């Protein structure tokens, strides 16, 4: 009896997922051929990144279609191929395309709630708050900061053995230095000290494990179910560290 229930459940899940891959064809739209469970993300994370995979689809369809339907795992999405349509989405018809469709959990995982993920009703007030940050004077200050850190990067690369340099880690350290200086006003100095505290916790944000990959799959494909279970997308240790850091900075600014 139990075995029968398991088999029926697995068959139901299989049929449901397969039916998801008929979304675009059932609506009469062109679509890229998807693979079971991974959709059009085959190879991503192993031999290529997401941008490279999307470029492959773009090259295949851009001369014959204005847009093409794709599948991010089992969720349907659109890859727009013409600049004039992109302009419509971002400007004239933005009100119809304002939500990113990305999972976030403001209550249990505050770092996941940001401009990239928030729904429009929360995104608009936050955008209004941070708009003054991008005034001409402040951008000039940011440019000077980025320029100085870039000089540090050039110095590091020019004095390092290129064959023995982990370029991925070096650029990640550079990015961490830029973000920590601009966002927090902290000189993290990760290029000079790869073991700096802020770099250590930054790594945790992007570290992947089978458990985290499974949580990502569930939260991205079934966001309501994930929200009901209180799923988080950020490493808790890293989240606690950066929220504490942010709180300390706010407290310092108030005084």
Automatic annotation (TrEMBL):
Q: Could you name the domain of life of the organism this protein comes from? A: Eukaryota
Q: Which Pfam families match?
A: p450
Q: Which UniProt keywords apply?
A: Endoplasmic reticulum, Heme, Iron, Membrane, Metal-binding, Microsome, Monooxygenase, Oxidoreductase
Its needed co-factors are: heme
User: Does the keyword Iron feature in the UniProt annotation?
Assistant: yes
Location(s), subcellular: Endoplasmic reticulum membrane; Microsome membrane
Q: Which GO terms describe its cellular component?
A: endoplasmic reticulum membrane
Question: A single Gene Ontology molecular function, please?
Answer: heme binding
Gene3D superfamilies given for it?
Answer: Cytochrome P450 (1.10.630.10)
Against InterPro entries, the record matches this protein to: Cyt_P450, Cyt_P450_E_grp-II, Cyt_P450_sf, Insect_CytP450_Detox
Q: What membrane topology is annotated for this entry?
A: Peripheral membrane protein
Q: State the similarity comment.
A: Belongs to the cytochrome P450 family.
Q: What is this protein called?
A: Cytochrome P450
Organism expressing this protein natively = Polypedilum vanderplanki
């Amino acid at each position: 009896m139990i075995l029968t229930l398991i088999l029926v459940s697995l068959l139901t899940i299989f049929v449901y997922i397969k039916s998801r891959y008929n979304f675009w064809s059932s609506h009469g739209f062109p679509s890229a051929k998807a693979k079971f469970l991974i959709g059009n993300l085959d190879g991503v994370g192993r031999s290529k990144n997401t941008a490279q995979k999307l470029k492959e689809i773009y090259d295949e369809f851009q001369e014959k279609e204005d847009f093409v339907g794709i599948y991010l795992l089992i969720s349907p999405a659109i890859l727009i191929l013409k600049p004039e349509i992109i302009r419509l989405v971002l400007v004239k018809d933005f009100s119809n395309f304002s939500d990113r469709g990305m999972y976030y959990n403001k209550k249990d995982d505050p770092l996941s709630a940001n401009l990239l993920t928030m729904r429009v009703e929360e995104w608009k007030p936050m955008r209004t708050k941070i708009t003054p940050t991008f005034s001409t004077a402040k951008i000039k200050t940011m440019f000077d900061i980025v320029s100085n850190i870039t000089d540090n990067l050039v110095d590091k690369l020019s004095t390092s053995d290129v064959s023995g340099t982990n370029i991925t880690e070096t650029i990640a350290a550079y990015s961490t230095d830029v973000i920590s200086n601009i966002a927090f006003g902290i000189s993290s100095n990760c290029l000079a000290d790869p073991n700096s505290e802020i770099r250590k916790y930054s790594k945790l944000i992007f570290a992947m494990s089978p458990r985290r990959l499974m949580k990502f799959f569930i939260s991205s494909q079934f966001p309501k179910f994930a929200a009901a279970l209180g799923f988080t997308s950020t490493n808790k240790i890293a989240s606690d560290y950066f929220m504490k850091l942010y709180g300390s900075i706010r407290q310092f600014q108030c005084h």
